[in-house]
């Protein structure tokens, strides 16, 4: 059985039919958004992180039907008119990935942290990213990227 839902996706209204057992990652793929990736499928790795009504959630554990009426943000939505946001760029500059499979989830959680904490300590960064796993073990570079993004944003705010 399918149900028609409407929601805002990265600031734009969308409407679509969604199956009763379809998860949010699959719904997003049908909108050609492939940043949120399904890996463990059990809420354990963070690769599928999206934001629903401002809260980071596991797309693999979120029913597509739950997106009805929500504000949904994905890693693709961080970019503005072809320009990567500070966190995305910091991950590239720091080389904070190897295969890149986990990267969108880390970027989403790092972005969420910086929206809440202006100048996070390394411990706060580690705590906030504790639910995200990187099989390539790029953790030192990931933490450095988040730190650099926070510093860059702070420098921009002072200009
Ligand atoms: S795929 Fe969703 S948390 Fe791992
Ligand atoms: S960069 Fe490969 S899993 Fe993180």
Automatic annotation (TrEMBL):
Keyword Repeat: no
InterPro entries: 2Fe-2S-bd (IPR002888), 2Fe-2S-bd_dom_sf (IPR036884), 2Fe-2S_ferredoxin-like_sf (IPR036010), 2Fe-2S_ferredoxin-type (IPR001041), Beta-grasp_dom_sf (IPR012675), Diverse_Oxidoreductases (IPR051452)
Domain 2Fe-2S ferredoxin-type: 3-78
Gene3D superfamilies referenced in this protein's UniProt entry, alphabetically: 3.10.20.30, [2Fe-2S]-binding domain (1.10.150.120)
Keywords linked to the UniProt accession: 2Fe-2S, Iron, Iron-sulfur, Metal-binding
Pfam families per UniProt: Fer2, Fer2_2
Coiled-coil intervals: none
Keyword Transport: no
UniProt GO molecular function: 2 iron, 2 sulfur cluster binding; metal ion binding; oxidoreductase activity
PANTHER family (UniProt xref): OXIDOREDUCTASE WITH IRON-SULFUR SUBUNIT, XANTHINE DEHYDROGENASE IRON-SULFUR-BINDING SUBUNIT XDHC-RELATED
UniProt protein name: Carbon-monoxide dehydrogenase small subunit/xanthine dehydrogenase YagT iron-sulfur-binding subunit
Organism this protein belongs to: Sphingomonas palmae
